[in-house]
Amino acid sequence: MNKVFHFDAPRDKYHCDAAVIWCFDNRFDLGFRKFLLKRAGVANSDPIKVAGGAKCLASPELETEREFVLQQIRKSIHLHGTRRVILMLHSDCGAYGGLAAGFSGDAAAERVHHHEELRRAAENLARAIPGIEIGAYFVDFEGVWQAELAAV
Ligand SMILES: [Zn+2]
Question: Relative to the CA of 80, which of 20, 129, 131, 151 has its CA 20 to 30 Å away?
Fold first, then answer.
């Protein structure tokens, strides 16, 4: 192989502040990363980016998707001492059919639906990995909304 680029990456292992289950839709990447760093106290994260984000835990198309994400979280716990998982869903997500086709353009209806999805994802995660700390957020084109989760 030919070396084509040089940089110095940190060699020390890090403690992960949170594993983040989010959609790979790039429109929300910068805004949500800012939120994680500035408001959620997440400097070192293990990002687990999959289409639909937390949908894989709440209502996966295939059960193997849920198991895959759970295994990624377990590996983050094992490798980086992760004790917190952040779940993310976003507006106009293709995995839910988008805002226009999936929710007839009704942003409020989409938000309510995704709130329930985040609760479902959190319940399933808490059942699979007891004791894990969970935060859940819906991201739209103007900001971040925190889901109210039942105490587990
Ligand atoms: Zn998406």
Answer: 151
Between the CA of 131 and the centroid of ligand 1 the distance, in Å, is: 27
Give distance in angstroms: CA of 108 to centre of ligand 1.
17
**25 alpha carbon to ligand 1 midpoint, in Å?**
5
Band of residue 152 on the pLDDT scale cut at 50, 70, 90? low
Q: Smallest Cα–Cα separation from 131: which of 95, 68, 85, 78? A: 85
Residue 16's identity, in one-letter code, is: C
Report in angstroms the alpha-carbon separations of 15 from 6, 7, 68.
25, 22, 22
Domain ranges of the chain: 18-46+54-146
pTM of the entire predicted model: 0.95
